[in-house]
Amino acid sequence: MLKKIFSRLKKKSEESKISEIKEEIVDVSEELAIDKEDVSEIEVEKKETNITEIVDNSEKIINSAPEAEAEAEAEAEAEAEAEAEAEAEAEAEAEIEFDENDKLYIIDAKIIRAKKIKAIDVYTNEEQVFDTHKQCSKALKVPIEYIAENLRHGHTDYLGEAIKYLSKELKLSELNNDYINNNKSPLEIYNELNNKIFTLNISESKRDDILSNNKIDPIKMHYKFESLDEEYEKYYRKYKYIIKRGGKKKIELLNSKGEVIEVFKSLDECSKYLNKSKSQITNMLKYKDNKVGRYEIRYSLRNI
């Protein structure tokens, strides 16, 4: 696409040059006609020589224009062909069904993106759609952690409050730190903390205080959720094998018109150019948070 634009610009530039040369020939010819009566033969000859040189140059430009245009068009066609092949390959790969690991990865990515979501009342089946998880949490007055718990694990008991309380009282903060993204499920963490009430070396009065506090109980919720973030699913289908593989990854920088203006051969090269850390660029691409000011970055489907 970019090469075609350059080709058109080049062609217009050459046409503009030819037009300017023709105007110059006319101007010099008129000047020569006016001055012929008043100037010496030497000056006339000089002007005639200038006209000859201008005409010769214009002929060279005119003759080379078709060749330059043909070359630019050939390059543009080759680039378009390569892009089409890469797109076709990506589409063919996208036809492969997602396995369980893919599904879990997509759910986690959607939770991190926290985009469009549907809330369903478990008693009335009433449905509400929200643009973001934050908007949903505020409108329904449900903890945003519960939305993540329900999307990933499906249960309608909110365990986050109990986990926070128990881990604080038992001084086991490591079980509370980012419990949503822990390798263990919230239910596993909750059960482990409950067992610790009886196995840790704490006073009987402390144990009684914990057991009598209603904060140790899960909170019953009456909403379940369904992510409507189809944008990410399409994105993952297209770039799955680039996202999940290691090694160098080619990155493209696009302007506001969607035209490629820069190509980076690695994440390091891209991060240095954009003055961002490598992990920032990795996460931006992984979760389709592609905007960089007025520009956008994306994985390149071409081979390095």
From TrEMBL:
The Nuclease-associated modular DNA-binding domain, residue ranges: 249-283
Coiled coil ranges: 11-38, 65-97
Pfam families, alphabetized: NUMOD1
Superkingdom as given in the UniProt entry: Bacteria
Keywords for the protein's UniProt record, in alphabetical order: Coiled coil
Entry keyword annotation includes Coiled coil: yes
Name the record gives this protein: Nuclease-associated modular DNA-binding 1 domain-containing protein
Species name: Romboutsia timonensis
Upper classification of the organism: Bacteria, Bacillati, Bacillota, Clostridia, Peptostreptococcales
